[in-house]
Amino acid sequence: MEEKNTVPAAIPPAGTEDIPTRKDRRPIIIAVAAGGVCGYRVYENHRVSLARQACASAVADQSKAVKSYKALLNADATTAALKTDATSVKDAKTLDALKQAVGVETPGMVRCDASDKTGLDEAAAKADKTTKGVKADAKTLESAVRAVESSKLDKTVADADGLYSSTDGKVQDEKTREALRQAIAKRDADAIAKAVKAVNDSKAAKDRADAEAAAKAQAEQEAAAQAAVAQQAQQQAQAQRSYSYGSYSSGGWSGSAGGQSYSGGSYSGGSQGGSSSNA
Description:
Low-confidence stretches: 264-279
Distance between the termini: 242 Å
Structural class: mainly alpha
Number of helices: 6
Shape: rod-shaped
Largest sheet: 4 strands, antiparallel
Order of helices and strands: HHHHHHEEEE
């Protein structure tokens, strides 16, 4: 019987029995790689999501700032300030500053339509910058409106003070001037307006009373003058009547009556049929 020459199979070292061969490790490597790609995608998607949320928040802040700015533009105080003319303020430069403030162009809204984190971050930064600019513009506009209101009040106070000074002794009721003085001290526009009207009304009342008194005095003066003229005329008439009957002089007397005249101690008849004389 022929013996077979067989070589026993190599026995792996102890502890290495479960290590797969290179051919067996290929599926594991593919799985690990696929898992890494998926993990990266998940991580990147998470970063993009956070960036999009941040951008949306920045745009919301911008929208809020723009809305507040537009509300300020259309506010009653701004409208009233814009209607103020140069004669109603003490410093006309405040009106120029206000016109510049309302002339600022409102920026457009930023859009978070980028697909990657970098684009979204840039959009968020732009929205933040725009928001700061709009808030600064709003603050400038508020200051400009207050400046016009303050200058308008300064003019009101100055005019009221001038009225107070110019009406000393020229009002019917001095209490109106005192009320005006107190309103000026408080810089209360409404109180000043009310007091100014009262002072003007009181001044007008005194002017009317003074005019009526002057007219009455003039009428009385003219009446007295006319009475004096009439009396003088009457006296002259009486004197003429009394002298028409006779007059006396140191050389005798003379007179006339019934067509006959007398002079001294002589007589002359009228023109009736003849004349006679005595020596």
